[in-house]
Design goal:
With 339 residues, the protein is an all-alpha fold. The chain has two domains: 21-155, Ferritin, core subunit, four-helix bundle (Ferritin), CATH 1.20.1260.10; 187-325, Ferritin (Up-down Bundle). Helix content is 61%, strand content 0%. It has helices at residues 21-47, 51-77, 101-122, 129-155, 192-218, 222-247, 271-294, 299-325. α5 (192-218) runs antiparallel to α7 (271-294). The longest helix has 27 residues, at 21-47. This is DUF3231 domain-containing protein. InterPro entries: DUF3231, Ferritin-like. It comes from Neobacillus cucumis.
Length: 339
């Protein structure tokens, strides 16, 4: 049997083939996300006091810069324009502190989840050697960061752990359709995957709520400020709904993080960056809801999730319109238009 030798990550093979649509789109999305994260992490590093958290932020920032440089190299190999994305004009490193140190850990946890989702899904669709190797490196380095972050959260006593449930006495099968009930008849407790998704979505939305709370304090545009407040209200309603499903099953839910936002009124970020970030986070919530629907088995929870999907979708659409109004919506590559 032929042995496959491991490829040295980073030493990308020369590849003259054109970029496929999936590669072009995923590289563009990765560039936009890492460009935004570079601005955010640079500001966090100016404010952080905890040495352990600072080290993790520095490591995260170095990954962003490395990924950006490699994407630029691939784009230049096919004469693809480098996205404008975000620059030093989108961050004010001298702005006062807007978040407590612990918030940086919860924020990083959510952004890492977003990165892993993008990078992992990109690997099987990438056919160019350099692109495939790049996304494999992204997955590998991001997973290493996950372990570093989880260890730090544990040491700081801030690790968000899913609830413990009893181990079944034996393997068994569902006996009747009552298993799917949610409104009438006998309603079963939540199963393990339903608990996982609800718990995870509570954690993600708690970070989002605190972030929007902060953004609404410092935004310079009244219209965009109101958009952030609307999003905060949407999340508050969502958290109430998800938490209810957990508490009615006597399961714990994660607390809010709003107390980790300071009273500063000076924005460290441009409205463009904050609006893009908000849309990006809510887009991730759409993915979370979709994953939850796919593994749900109760009619009531399924309907609730479908309603949330619609609500979040309309909110993202409103945000996209604001980006368009302000001339901030950068265009991704698309198929040719035939006359």
């Amino acid at each position: 049997m032929k042995t496959i030798k491991p490829t040295k990550i980073g030493a990308y093979s020369s590849c003259k083939s054109e970029l496929r649509s999936s590669e072009m789109g995923d590289l563009w999305a990765a560039y936009m996300g890492n460009s935004m994260s570079k601005c955010v992490l640079s500001y966090f590093l100016k404010q952080v006091e905890d040495k352990d958290i600072k080290g993790t932020l520095e490591h995260s920032l170095s990954l962003c810069e490395d990924f950006l440089g490699k994407i630029e190299k691939i784009f230049r190999s096919v004469n693809h324009p480098i996205p404008i994305a975000f620059t030093k004009d989108d961050v004010n490193l001298d702005a006062p502190r807007l978040f407590d140190d612990e918030f940086y850990l919860h924020y990083l946890r959510q952004m890492i989840r977003a990165g892993i989702n993008l990078y992992a899904l990109s690997v099987p669709l990438s056919t160019r050697t350099d692109v495939s190797e790049f996304f494999i490196q992204c997955v590998d380095e991001t997973m290493k960061l996950v372990n570093i972050l989880n260890d730090l959260l544990e040491r700081k006593g801030a690790s968000p752990k899913t609830p413990v449930i009893p181990v079944p006495e034996k393997a068994s099968f569902v006996q009747n359709e009552d298993y799917f009930n949610g409104y009438l008849g006998k309603i079963r407790p939540l199963h393990a995957l339903e608990i996982k998704h609800l718990f995870d979505m509570v954690g993600a939305n708690s970070v989002n709520k605190a972030l929007l709370f902060a953004f609404s304090q410092v935004s310079e545009s009244e219209k965009i400020k109101q958009f952030f407040k609307k999003g905060e209200e949407l999340i508050a309603n969502t958290l109430e709904t998800y938490t209810h499903y957990l508490t009615e099953n006597h399961l714990p839910a994660l607390p809010l993080l709003d107390h980790m936002v300071t009273t500063s009124k000076f924005s460290p970020f441009s409205d463009k960056l904050m609006l893009f970030h908000t849309i990006d986070l809510f887009t991730l919530r759409i993915r979370d809801i979709g994953n939850s629907i796919a593994e749900n088995g109760r009619h009531d929870l399924g309907l609730t999730l479908f309603k949330k999907l619609t609500t979040v979708g309309f909110y993202v659409q409103d945000g996209a319109k604001l980006m368009l109004e302000n001339g901030w919506m950068e265009k991704i590559s698309h198929a040719p238009k035939w006359e």
